[in-house]
Structure formats: structure tokens, C-alpha cells
Amino acid sequence: MQPQGVQKEDDHAGYHQSLHLALLRDNEKLALEILDQHVDCANMVCCDRNHDGESPLHLAIFNGNFRLVRELVSRGADPNARCTGTSFSQAQGGEGGVLFYYGEYALSLAARLGMEHIVRYLVENGAELDNQDSKGNTVLHVLSIMEHADAACSMARLVLKLVEEQLEILKTQYDNQQLSLEEFVQIRENLDLEKITNNAGLTPVKLAADSGNLEMFQVLLDPSRKQHVLWKYGPVSECLYDLTDIDSTQRGACNGLLEIVVYSNVRRFYTNIKYAKCMVNTPMYGSVSECLCDLTDIDSTQHGARNGLLEIVVYSNVRRFYTNIKAAKMVQTTPIKQLLNKKWTSFVRGWFLAFALAYLVHIIVFTICCWYRPLRTVVRVVSNGTDNVTVTVVEKVPVFESYNTPWHQARLAGEMFTLLVVLLILYVEISDIIHVKPQAFGILNGVGNGPFRFLSLLYSCAVLILLVFRLTDHPREDVVMSLALVFGWMLLLYFSRGSEALGPFTVIIQQILAGDIVRFFAVYLVCLLGYTAAFYITFEQADEYLEQFRDFEHTMLTLFKLTLGVEDVTVLDKAPNPAMAVALFVSFLIFSFLLMTNLLIGMMGETLSRVSEEKRDLWKLQRACLILLFERRLPSCLRRPAGEYVDVPGFDPNTRYLRVKILGELEARSEVKFKRAPARQRPSFQRSVVGSTKSAKMRAMVDYWRKQTTSL
């Protein structure tokens, strides 16, 4: 870490290099002696490529030496010192080339290292909280991607507290007419760290959701700071929640917080249950309160935006939802949970049921058209060598002779209706592929819409190919028709995710197919190919004609049926080498039937038990994907905006707020806690909950309060 090049000023380059070496070794005594003799060295920086901009203040903070930090600042060191060398700047060195990314500024470095006293001291001595590095990240952005969640959350709370203190000072200066109105508004906007976006268009809370940092997500979305209390009457209060950055679908943005949370790497949701709780951060259940949430940053759908917090929470890297249950918990954080419920009950549920009914009619019409496709019976005389035999066969009617009767014309109308629906489905899917994040189309993710979108594309293409085969009288028309019917009816399962009873069931099926079955067949196929070749060679020179082993394909089919237990091999003694045939037969049964099949059953049982534990959270996440999908596809005139504009003093009349009724006080953490109210305000059943020491009773009471909150 020794600097290679140092900016020369006058004749102090040697002292500056000595100061750097002393600071690198944390030699406080030597560093102070150099500073006493050469004060200007406190503000000199390195100029080599790797450490460009690195100042003595950075090194003192690296060592955690608070005394040296104070001495350097008191001697003129810039508290806004910035290091842009390739070793510490991702913009210069790339994400894989940096030694340690901390946001370039001295303040961000102290915050990244968890040095609260140094952070407070730097801010008090002129360090600006809104400084942005080469990637546009502020100190809150840097904390949002920290791996050590507890330290990051503690530091984030300190930074937010310092912002509040500076706002109070700013307000005092404005009241004393030390600042003009324009200066006051400008500085106040700069201090709103939670709304500053980086180069990727992400605010700190969106970045926390995108990186899967549940703890920071909850701190930055703390309802106790976001809510605006309108009134309170006893245990009941009414609040407003700002949805500006949470729901961006109204503005047409694609990286709103809700999208990021719901679509953020859907796969990670299964292995870490914390992610499913970002949507679970519910208030305490001791009393009832109603709040209004500002929807400006939460729900942006009404403005056609795609960068709302709601979208980020839902859409950010769909795969993470299965292997890290954190994201499913993000969807249950206040006010995201209430916002999703509002969207579902206000308009999505009705449109979802209408589309489900329309698709059911479509697939029934398509099935009837296929069932009654034009066929005719033809009698043919075939010679078998000695005699002429009369054979009755069924063949297709040429396309131009298929629509002569009123019934066939009615079938033509059904076929045209089917074709129009398929073209509409294909248009919607292709437009989504172009405009929506490609991660949302993962074939193997079960929470997002990826598998069904892939299935809908297969179905649409199969119907179009069927149309071409029908017009050209292709002999394989029935093959494509069979595939189209299977794809079409399987696609009907998509609408089961609107039901809490059936939605998790489809998730389990997708997980087993995408995980257990794929892994099983990857190993089984190797075994099957090897034994198929061995059996075929063993029976290739048999004296008799053996139907089961007449060629390579039939041999493979016989072994596959043998694995499933639906085939029996009774011709082992007819092989040229019966002992070898028996040995192959026994070893294949042991490996494929006893070992592989039972292993598959065990894997499916484990998947079933794992998914069953979190099926409710997964269904909520599933429904969140569904809500955003319908909100994207419906025209703005058919969407009902979540939230409302309020005409209340102190509130922005152009901002949407979500009105929320809450049972008890809001907590930043996701755990449910109970506060003991005065006896005159505490019902008897609440006293029993507070005094109870049995977890079962506690869970039952929590479920009761949750249902009461939902009903409100």
C-alpha cells in the first residue's frame, strides 16, 4: 500500500512521503512531529494511478486513529478528501479490480469501517453528507451494500440522525434570515439523502433491495420515519405514507422499489428465509392505527414509470427469490404489503378473474375445434401378396374441402377466434421481452412469471405452426396439434396463482420439475445410455427376433420402462451370453430402480417439506409478481391508481399517499413485539398474551392480530 508517486509542492515531497509511511504504520508520534514541522503536508495527496487522491486523512481513518484524524483536520486537512485511484474506485478500476470499495470520500470510508465518532467529527467539521463518488453513490448507498448488516444499520441510523441535525440547523439559519429561500430549498434538497439516485438510477433503499440487504432495507423504509400521522384518538391513529419511490408503475418506470423487491433474483428466496420478510415488516399488534403512505416513490405505475420501490422489490433479479427467502419478506414490509393488497382488491383481482375466464373459454374452443377437425373414412383395397384385403382408414380432409357445411363454418369461426387470441398472447409476450428485465423470464424460476411466459410462447408458436401445417396439408399436423393442446391446458395453471390454496401447489410442481427432475435425469441419462449400448450389443447376435431389443431405440425404451416398473424382461436366457445378460439386468435394476428412483423420491419429499414451510410467503410473492404484470399490461385508463391525493396542510397536494390502518405502533424490525398498555386500555386477552410464556399461544395471538389488521 506504499505510495509510488507523490505530488510535489515546494520542497516537502520527502516529508509528505515520510508522513504517508508513518500513517501506514500507524506511528502516531512520528506523524505528529512531521505535521508540527510541515503543516501543509496534512492536505497533500498521492498522484499515482492506484492511489490517486489518497490523503493522510484517508490513512488515519483506515487505521481508526481518531486523534490523528482530529490533528489532521485541525491542521487544514480537507474533510471532503476524495481518493479516485484504481485500487479504491470501481469507476476507475472496475468492480473486480478494487482492493476495497468505500465510496472514495473520507466520510464514506469512516462510515464503511463503522467509526461513528469519526463520522460525527467529520460532519461537524465540514464533511458534506451528500457527496457522490464516481458511481453516484452517497454514504447511504455505500452502507446499503455492506455485508455486515448490523454495523451498516447502526451507521445508517447515525447518518440519518446527522441529516436531521443539519436540517434543524438549516431551519434555524433560515428563521434568522441567514439564508434566502432559494438557498434553504436547495440545501434541504441536497440533504435528502434517501432520494438521491446513483448512476444506475437507484436510491439507497432501492440499492438495498437490489442487493438483498434486508436489514438496511428495513432501516431505510422504517415506517416510524416514513409515516405522517394525521390524527390519533386513543389507540387509533391515521397516518399517510409517501409512495413516491416505492410504486413507480404510474410513471412508467422499470426500476421502482416494488419491482426490485419482487423480481430481485427470485432463486435466492428458498435458502434464506430472511428475504421473504422484506414484505413482512408489520407493525406491532397492540392497538389500531390508520396511516397514509406517500406513494410518490413507492408506486410509480400511475405515471408510467418503472423505477418505483415497489417494482424494485418485486422484480429485482427474479432468481434470488427461491434460494434466498429474504425477498419474499421484503414484500411484506409496511407499507409495501398494504400497497399490494390495495392494488389487488381495487382492480387487479377483477381483471385477473376476467382474463382467467376468457382464457378458459379460449382453450375450450380450441379443444373443440381440434376434436372435431375434418376427417373422413376411406375404404381401400390392399394386396397382401396372395389376396386383396379391404381396409378402412381415416384420413384428413384437404383444407379447401373442410368448410363446406354450416357446422364446419362454425368451427372456422372458432379457429379464427383461437388464432386472434394466440396472436394477442404472442404480441404481449414479445413486447414484455423487449421492455422488461430479461431476468424476469427465467424458465426455471417458480415465483416469477418466467416458466409460464416460456410456456405461453411455446403454445403460441405451436398454434402458428399448426396453422401452417393445416394450410399445407402436412402429414404431421396431428403431432403439432397434440403439443399445442398440452401447452395450452398447462398454461391454464398460471391462473391458479391467484388462489392461496392452489398457487403454492404450482410452485411446488415447478420446483420439483426445475430442480429434482432435472438433476435426476442428468445422472440417469448417463446410466441409461451406457446400459442401452451394453444390452443392445448383448442381444445383437441373438438367434431369435427379440422385439424389446431389436434396435437401439427400442432397447432404450425397454430399459426406461423397466426403471418405471411397467416392463418385464423374460428373454435373458435367449442372449448369446445369458450370464452377461443377467449381470447387466441385475446391476441396472440396482442402480436405476433401487438407487436412483428412491433418491428421486427422497429429493422430491425434501423439496415438498421445504416449500410447504414457506408456502404462504411464496404465494404472496407470487401474487406480487402477478399484480405488477397486470399493472404493466393494462392500459392506464383501466388501472386504478393506488393511494390518494390529500388536501391537508403540510402535505404535498401533488403527491400520492397510501392510507393505512395499523394495529399498534410501527417498528422498524420485522419481529412482532407487544407493549404493555395501561390496564384501562388493555383487554383481558391482551393481558393473557403479555403474560404468556408459551410460544404456541403467542403465535396464535399474533395470527389473530394479523387477521384483524387485514380486515381493517
TrEMBL record:
Reactions catalysed according to its record: Ca(2+)(in) = Ca(2+)(out)
Coiled-coil regions listed: none
Keyword Repeat: yes
Coarse class of the protein's main subcellular location: membrane
Pfam families, per database record: Ank, Ank_4, Ion_trans
GO cellular component terms, semicolon-separated: plasma membrane
Gene3D superfamilies: 1.10.287.70, Ankyrin repeat-containing domain (1.25.40.20)
Chain segments annotated as transmembrane: 351-374, 451-472, 478-496, 517-539, 579-601
Membrane topology: Multi-pass membrane protein
Annotated GO MF terms: calcium channel activity; calmodulin binding; metal ion binding
Keywords, in A-Z order: ANK repeat, Calcium, Calcium channel, Calcium transport, Calmodulin-binding, Cell membrane, Ion channel, Ion transport, Membrane, Metal-binding, Phosphoprotein, Repeat, Transmembrane, Transmembrane helix, Transport
Location relative to the cell: Cell membrane
InterPro entries associated with the record: Ankyrin_rpt, Ankyrin_rpt-contain_sf, Ion_trans_dom, TRPV, TRPV5/TRPV6
Domain Ion transport residue range list: 452-615
Biological process, per Gene Ontology: calcium ion import across plasma membrane
SUPFAM superfamilies: Ankyrin repeat
ANK repeats: 52-84, 102-134
Record-given protein name: Transient receptor potential cation channel subfamily V member 6-like
Organism: Branchiostoma floridae
